[in-house]
From TrEMBL, chain A:
Keywords: Cell membrane, Lipoprotein, Membrane, Palmitate, Signal. It comes from Streptomyces triticirhizae. InterPro entries: Bact_solute-bd_prot1, SBP. The keyword Membrane applies. This is Extracellular solute-binding protein. Residues 1-30 form the signal peptide. It comes from the Bacteria. The keyword Signal applies.
From TrEMBL, chain B:
It is a multi-pass membrane protein. The lineage of its organism: Bacteria, Bacillati, Actinomycetota, Actinomycetes, Kitasatosporales. GO terms for biological process: transmembrane transport. Belongs to the binding-protein-dependent transport system permease family. It is found in: Cell membrane. This is Sugar ABC transporter permease. The keyword Transmembrane helix applies.
Amino acid sequence: MADRQRTRRRLPAALVGAALLLAGCFGGPAGDDVVTLDYWCWSQGQAEKVAAFNAAHPGIRVRHTDAGGGTDTATKLLTASRAGNAPDIACVEYPTVPAMVVSDVLRDIAPYTAEVTDAFSPEIWRMTRFEGEVYGVPQDIGPMVLLYHRARFEELGLAVPATWEEFAEVAEQVRERDPDSHLATFAPAEFGNFAGLAQQAGAAWWSVEDRRWTVGIDDGPTLRVAAYWQDLIDRDLVRPEPLLTPEWNARLNRGEVLTWPSALWAPGVIHGIAEGQAGDWAIAPLPHWEGEGPEVALQGGTALTVTKNSEHPREAAEFAMWMNTAPEAVELQIASGQYPACRSGQETAAHSPPPPLTGEQADYWEVAAFAADHTVPSISWGPNVSTAADAYNDAVSAAVRDGTPLPDALRDVHRTVLDDMTRVGFDVTD
Amino acid sequence: MTSTTPAADPAPPPRAPRRRATRAPFVLLAPALALFAAFVLIPIGYALFLSTQGLRIVDEGVFGIRDEVFVGLANYTQVLGDADFRAGFGRLALYGLIAVPLTLGLALLFALLLDNASSRARRFSRVAIFLPYAVPGVVASLMWGFMYLPSTSPFSHLTERLGLGGIPFLDGGAIYPSLANIAVWGGVGFNMIIIYTSLRGIPGELYDAARIDGCGEWRIAWRIKIPLVAPALVITGLFALIGTIQVYGEPTMLSPMTSEISQTWVPLMRIYRDGFVRDDLPLAAAGSVILAVGTLLVSLALLRVTQRRAFGGVR
């Protein structure tokens, strides 16, 4: 008995010893002079990029973790930051960046990022740079485009709409020519999508100057866009239902969903659902309002941010810059299906093959580059975007369900966001 | 408690050293008390503390920074003043009115049938009825969700074939029975086992006596079995009630499939949203305290109403 107990006690010690020995042998230069950084990101192809970075930087070792999609990672990041153990670098979606700054999660890395200032356009910097303070290096962007089922368009003899006015006309033709199909879905819980459509029309949902905020979720352009979609819903020209449900996926596979006005990442999403339609789809510039320019908003996209918890902000910033500007990293990024935020990456993308879903489209990257070059210059997000998103999804879902007007739902969202900001103590005007 | 104390406590052995006798209970209780404090008292205390805090803007950084400050009862007034939070309790009540009686009724029915000597394939039936309880709630919700969605529902497929059109499981008021069905499906087996175990504990002489007096199986069930398993019914009823108040998983899983279920459909969903989507843990703490106090009051009320009938009758 006594002997067995002793060996039992010794075993863990022996294992630890062996592990240490192994680490000593194979850990390479994992000595004192190597900085270890933790990195959270959920997008595709990160492991390869991180491996490439580690290979190129013997003094820094980055450990990559996929902490879940945008919302999950943001939630975990807030919690971890309060506990003092946030990763050094984290992927954050652009709309969430101000909230992370206000929650004291992110560090200003302006002292380190001077060398990449010209690598990104000023419109892109707007997402992470506030009054000269830099809270992240842009990674990818999602300029909005119209993804359409080209084969079905040809079959029904439809023209690709260039304006929203034409979009409504084409929607009517679809209903006449194939009563089972709709031109598009109005998804009630797609805050980011509607925000993009409103921004394209000129909406400014949040703006800030000297910590004085203005909220405009019920501004003229927003209500105009809401009324436009309400009209399409009322006339049964678009189908109001949630996206990416088994229901919607089945409809898509039957070819009854003809377009998805969304962003450059959309072909990857549709390909995941309807692989059989590879080559049948194409992208076109997002329709614009008659008499207005072709500028579009960005839907989605992320930046690599450095946290206040990080003890090595210089190395963390170096990593964030390398990941988003180094030619090697950008090539891996494009291969994984992301559209790079940096100028050089967008040029590289122009020479790569289109995604499989739109594989037959010769001018895919030209359309993409055009959208990226024509983004609305004034997008800015607020400190409580998650509250807005949540209020939007509930209010618009209820409106669609109960048949109440969408503009009223947007007014409710505006009120909720305003009340929330007032309660928290922001200096905010209507 | 009403239990009578023994007429006379046995006197302590006269020569036992007094100190040891007084120390022993504390030593023996210490581990339990330490665990109770660490995992119940301190978390509750912290939740109460947190519910009086608020994240407010202080002048720092480019936009200002949210910092924890004392706000008194502001979180409580905010939560209680929210019509949607109160409406969540209404939705909960409607859901509970369907789910609880059905779960208990079916559990009792199955338990009585299994207990009946003339039933066949009892072991198989017991396992078959219990099996859904072993399916994780999230899996059950997803599975039922697919069976409700028009394009994947086998039920709607059948009714469409018959020319009756699909069944709108997820639209309008139908969402309540659809959700309750998931809870009933998963909960009946567990409750049945508790009631069945209680039934097996009834002495056989009672049945013999009843049969001699001319009772049929129906009357035995009604007059003997059900009154004697009343304590088990109260316990299962309490579990079902608390389970109803804490319902979260089923509506959360179904909410992406229907616009009928909002982010704040039931109180717990709202608490989750406040704490994690809106990053306002203090507000979530206040909501949790309100929900916990409500659960406690409802449970106490239920026990008070039923205790006399259920436990008093046995004596």
